[in-house]
Amino acid sequence: MRLGAAVFLVSASLLTLAPSGPPALPERMADTGGGTQLITAQASRPSSTTGTLTWWNRRDGRWVKAGSSAARFGAKGLVEGGSRRQGTNTTPTGLYDLPYAFGIKAAPAGTKVPYRRVHQNSWWCQDNDSRAYNRWTEPRAADCRAAESEHLISYGTQYAYALVIGFNYERPVRGRGAGIFLHVNGRGATAGCVSVPRDAMQRILDWADPARRPHLAIGTASGPTSIVRY
């Protein structure tokens, strides 16, 4: 075989082995939370009310897509989580943990994350004057006004299955926002949550494994709220 032909064959083999296309989205992110599972919720721009939610596994040093779904965001789009204000119908961008799941329905088969069942007296307090601000309370806390809270069982479609998003959760800042979840689609855009079709929510609950420390990153394709900044 001529030397030139041999070089050509080696070069062709290297091209075949080389990965095609751009790096997977998590590979381009500043932080993925340190675990081996990740959910990304990406919109095209801050004013968007729809986008794509994808869940990923870290395997052999690479991020591999495990599933994907259309997603909905706040009716007023997305905004940087650190500057968000309550009642603005915006979805907070950032990287968040997922403390636990809950639902009106029983946990889907295979669910490994802690799952709390909704009852008639289950509430999520959004009252800025309450000590239970941004917390599940059952029954509703005495200092938490019903008008400033969500009666979870009243949202039979959206809260059939849900995951708590750790936005403003560990050390709540009053006025920043409460009750931000990943849940089942309602009729349209959300009040600030991220939502997906019911079957996607069931698949996510079957997939998520707390031992693998899943996180959720929310952001846009570019700009100050770009998902790769988180």
From TrEMBL:
Domain of life where this protein originates: Bacteria
Claim: Signal is one of the keywords in the record: yes
Domain L,D-TPase catalytic: 71-211
Keywords carried by this UniProt record: Signal
Record's signal peptide: 1-18
InterPro entries: LD_TPept_cat_dom
Identification of the protein by name: L,D-transpeptidase
Lineage: Bacteria, Bacillati, Actinomycetota, Actinomycetes, Kitasatosporales
